[in-house]
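Appendix B. Chain record.
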Amino acid sequence: MTTRCTLAVDIGTSSSKGVLVDPHGVLLATATIAHDVRRPNPGWVEMDGRLWWDEFVDLSRRLLAEAVRHDPVVVAVGVSGMGPCVLLVDEAGEPVRPAILYGVDTRATEQVERMTASLGVREITRVAGSTLTSQAAGPKIVWTAENEPEAYARARRLFMPASWLAFQLTGAYVLDHQSASQCTPLYDVERESWHLPWWDRFAAGLEPPALRWAGEIAGTVTAGASAATGIPVGTPVIAGTIDAWTEAVSVGAHGLGDLMLMYGTTMFLIATGAQTLRTPSMWMTVGAFPGTRNLAGGLATSGALTAWLKDLTASDYPSLLTEAESSGPGARGLLMLPYLSGERTPILDPDARGVLAGLTLSHTRGDLYRAALEATAFGVRHNVETMRAAGAQIDRIVAVGGGTQGRLWLQIVSDVTGLVQQVPSTTIGASYGAAFLAAGAVSEGSPPLIEEWNPVETVIEPEPSRSARYDELYDLYLRLYPATRDIAHALARSQRTPEETP
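Structure tokens predicted for this chain:
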């Protein structure tokens, strides 16, 4: 007996993940392919866009083979990916250079400053909702035009991972509204359309993609894509969106008053409401669904920081977590700024750098690891307080991502923030949300409910006895950045212009 299912793939920073899901949200198959980003220069983070399609093909074949006993029939395809990214392609659909990734790539600082001075902060936020930062795609397009004019002269279209997969599958050139709203300043958030005067000025020569909502159908699988992937010809493919928003969908954290907290290579927060909230230190975007608006933020390093420490100490996660738990709240007097890749919100400082304060010869790797987990928790609290100060209503917090597999990190975040976190039964990530959106796009009757697909399984309560200690440390955390900022900026400048080797 055949099983109707949706197949979905998410292209992430450190891996691509695929799922095959039945009509009730049950995972029939999962597959993951690890990959690395390229960092050819300080502040640059790139990836070959061709890899995204190659990995989709590989994953789709693996998923169908793994689920063969279920006799799967793919009825819809979901796509998702990191973003906002800038992948520019030529008339033949070939990338003209590697894709420039989201806010972790800080190469366009000069363009951000110049465009802000030219357009004015007030006008940019009036049209686009947010100020220009390293997260914005617009300045990265301008950087390409100015620094790689030969490549830009060949560019005709703009893609992000999800839209690139949809294009390869269907031939449709579309971008979802949420992703478009992060192409600041090229998208008008109130009119929900491209702001053509600024598109023509800052993205000259590029064709604006047609706009869709994340769960809308972009097109259907072509014969060529079917031959490559094993997905039947004519299968609908949704437009998809950026992974953090798809992940919020995957756990039902995209309702009004919800906050999604994603534990991944980077940490991401999305608060959902009905109003456009403009604040210079956070990102305002259009939501994944019509009628919603988001206030979003992100730490530039979280899982990347813990992975760095694991590799640096030649250890493993279970050992480090055990030692960090023994270290106790406050990491025996250590305090860390987690800005090893600069920082995104709310300080918006690509030249921020990591700081470890209070270090002595008696400290252990477990103390270092505990300090790193606490540093990300302080960063989350900083973002949440900034969101609330801007007017965001936060009624419910849902935790997602790979970091939710360990209890200690979750508990530290709840203790530092004072927030209760709900963890759903399935935290596989954005690919599951893309599968849900795809299922809804082709549902013949009532669309599926994410509460039925993915109910809450665990609730993390803050421990009141630790609040006073963490309040004290949080105050020191807020003071540590301005106290070391000038030194960090000087070091960042030296990292960009290393001294010549004698």
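Further analysis of this model is presented in Appendix C.
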